[in-house]
Design goal:
The complex is a heterodimer of chains A (164) and B (337). Chain A is an alpha+beta fold. Helix content of chain A is 37%, strand content 15%. In chain A, α2 crosses α5 and α3 packs across α5 (141-163). The longest helix of chain B is centred in the last third of the chain and has 25 residues, at 306-330. Chain B is an alpha+beta fold. The complex binds flavin-adenine dinucleotide, iron/sulfur cluster (SF4) and FE2/S2 (inorganic) cluster (2 copies).
Chain lengths: 164, 337
Amino acid sequence: MKILVELSVNGERFEIATNPHATLLEVLRNQLGLTGAKEACGTGECGSCTVLADGRPILACLALAADYQDCEITTIEGLQAGSTLTPVQESFLEKGAVQCGFCTPGMVLSATALLKKNPAPTLDQIRKALEGNLCRCTGYNKILEAVRAAGEKMSQEASGSSGQ
Amino acid sequence: MQLPRFDLKRPSSFHEAVRLLVEYGNAAKISAGGTDLLPRMKYRIAAPATVISLKRIPVSEPFQDSEGNLHVHALVRLSDAASSNLVRTNAPALADAALAVGSEQIRNMGTLGGNVCLEPRCHYYNQSHAYQFMDPCFKRGGNLCYLVPKGNRCWALACSDTVPALIGLRAAAVVQSGDREYTIPVEELFTGDPVRPLCLGETDLITDIVVPAARPRTAVVFRKLSPRGGIDFATVNCAVMLKLSEDREACEDAIIAIGAVSGKPMRAGQAEKNLLGRKIAPDVIHEAAGRTASEIRPSMRCDCSISYLRKCIESLTQAALETAYQRASSGDGVKPD
Ligand SMILES: Cc1cc2nc3c(=O)[nH]c(=O)nc-3n(C[C@H](O)[C@H](O)[C@H](O)COP(=O)(O)OP(=O)(O)OC[C@H]3O[C@@H](n4cnc5c(N)ncnc54)[C@H](O)[C@@H]3O)c2cc1C
Ligand code: SF4
Ligand code: FES
Ligand code: FES
């Protein structure tokens, strides 16, 4: 029997009839058409399904949709305002941190959550925050560079705007 | 990968959850954070007709009672346990162990109670059985083992990271059992049989973990070794507790707990006893680590040899004891890394 779940995704409320065994990832991709979060392993090991729940990275493939009704979900589609990229997205492009792109939505969301908590992370802190996001293409170095550059960009913007 | 079908119950209190467990019995499984249960369900090694999700039960923040004991709610997420100031100052080993689990995402979902109750794991068992038509092994109710084909028991490993730390801290679990509540030391929760790993009754739930007040000149240290350093389960993990005498030279109390090498976390009782009353020095620590490595009997496994494991146990124990001694003797015995 279907159940009714109320989800708050990228600032919009949705009421969705779905299966009790539906994962958040299935609902996002198949019922809401938000295909940014990817399914690779489906069992928690790769992070390609990462979304933010109340700002914190979680794995949509291991989340029951019904369990995440009380929080604000952000997917990669909800990160930017209009067509302007966020500093993290920009840096990923500038530093060549994207190859096939399958890991990228998860990487960007994990990095975004990290930089919000800690705008000037050390390399070790970046590695720790991204330990659950696997990438089979880039070899990680460009991703680490991109996250670091995004942090710098964000602190510059913050100090720039406070100086105005 | 899809989950098998099930009926979902979402109780809003432990009382209600226990009532549901009584009602549905064996056909129901608990999901706290779901990061252990749901992969098993996707692999088709668990297929409960009913899943009881604890997500709606309100979670209280860690707090300290008037005697200084630290109470941590079982449903606290590991990332919150790791970043809680109270936990970091009063039980840094627990914070470090929580931070060593899986990944940021896993820690944002997985709970402390779920980590304590983590199902013992084995390379044959913890993989997809969706297209496997082999006979079930002991752990799936069958009568054979793929890891040790001539054996007559299961050799799956208890891999929880927080459990050795909780043993080092002499923590206890508060258990809701029907309308009754009882407390049991975390160390006594485990049977050692990977097929039925917990001493809890079928309808019992852990509601809180209580860590006794930190003692003076005492340090508890957690260390983990894993293949990639992140995301992986421990190859071996270890927690040691060291309490020094008033002159901060001799050992007054010690715990050495080794995890992920057996069906339950192991204590190195002989090595601990041998430390008591001894003046702590590099050779004494070295000896204790050596004794630990020869005393602990790791189970058979397929990712590394027993002799390699013994070396890991020795070096991990040595490193943990050195740090514990440093912290206990420098007065900031309870400060985290
Ligand atoms: C990729 C990956 C990596 C991982 N790495 C690690 C690791 O490095 N170290 C580690 O220790 N674990 C690891 N885990 C396992 C797991 O994520 C953690 O152990 C986590 O803490 C489990 O908590 P949970 O709340 O998600 O458990 P759940 O899946 O919700 O529950 C696990 C089991 O415990 C029982 N249970 C849960 N809560 C209670 C309670 N309050 N009372 C009684 N029984 C209860 C349930 O019946 C269930 O069978 C990993 C998992 C994945 C998928
Ligand atoms: S050790 Fe043997 S019985 Fe136990 S889970 Fe692995 S294959 Fe099954
Ligand atoms: S698809 Fe969710 S972690 Fe790999
Ligand atoms: S860019 Fe291909 S997996 Fe990361």
